[in-house]
Design a protein that fits this description.
single chain; 225 residues; alpha/beta; 7 strands
Length: 225
């Protein structure tokens, strides 16, 4: 999908980033396969169950133990049973986190450049509690740079009990944007999330890769380096 021009730089105040598959790289399916094998489940069936049960977990209305119990039940997997041992749960959480948290240095370069130019930066992401703890902990630095510190606000679904593309989560974000909606740019890899932001008056960029993001931002922000 080709992004529409986002307008003049003078009209922009706040840039809002999704995290998964934007600041991080795509999910590493090698770890997904390890999770499937750990549960003794077919790999494609595991991926379907993993996604189908994800919403309540990322919303923060169920914990990791309940999430994995539901995944296991959907797969009729016998390893976990009705209760999950601490060791099994810890292993599944570790593999899950490892599958997601490979930080994309090319996107972080853009974030750093935008910060130097004085833009207000927000993150708005669907993320569970375990992801939050890693995001704000061991994965917040890249090559010695605390890239999380570049953000003025970090808004996560597990804290807000809301998920993109629900209208209320964007309203919560706009309340902290310090700008009118049309002075905000929202960047996400999921088209329906970008469409929801545009419906509230924000400018939207459908993220495919960092090079395309640079191109989408260039008409308004000039060359980012």
């Amino acid at each position: 999908m080709r992004n529409e021009p986002i307008g003049a730089a003078s009209a922009l105040r706040t840039i809002i980033f999704d995290c998964g598959r934007v600041i991080t790289l795509d999910q590493d399916m090698e770890y997904s396969d390890q999770m499937a094998d750990f549960l003794g489940a077919p790999r494609m069936a595991f991926r379907e169950a993993y996604s189908a049960e994800r919403h309540d977990y990322d919303r923060g209305t169920i914990d990791a133990a309940e999430y994995w119990r539901r995944v296991s039940a959907r797969l009729n997997a016998t390893r976990l049973g009705s209760s999950i041992s601490g060791a099994d749960l810890a292993r599944l959480i570790e593999l899950d986190i490892r599958s997601w948290f490979s930080i994309n240095p090319a996107t972080v370069e853009i974030i750093h450049a935008l910060k130097r130019r004085g833009y207000r930066l927000l993150m708005l992401s669907n993320m569970n509690l375990e992801g939050k703890e890693c995001l704000l902990g061991p994965f917040r630095t890249l090559d010695g740079l605390d890239w999380i510190a570049l953000f003025d606000e970090v808004l996560l679904s597990c804290d807000l009990k809301l998920l993109k593309p629900e209208r209320a989560i964007y309203e919560a974000c706009l309340a902290l944007a310090h700008a009118e909606p049309d002075a905000c740019v929202f960047i996400d890899d999921t088209p329906k999330n970008v469409a929801a932001a545009r419906a509230l008056g924000m400018r939207g960029i459908d993220f495919t890769d960092a090079a395309a993001l640079r191109e989408a931002l260039a008409p308004a922000l000039g060359r980012i380096a």
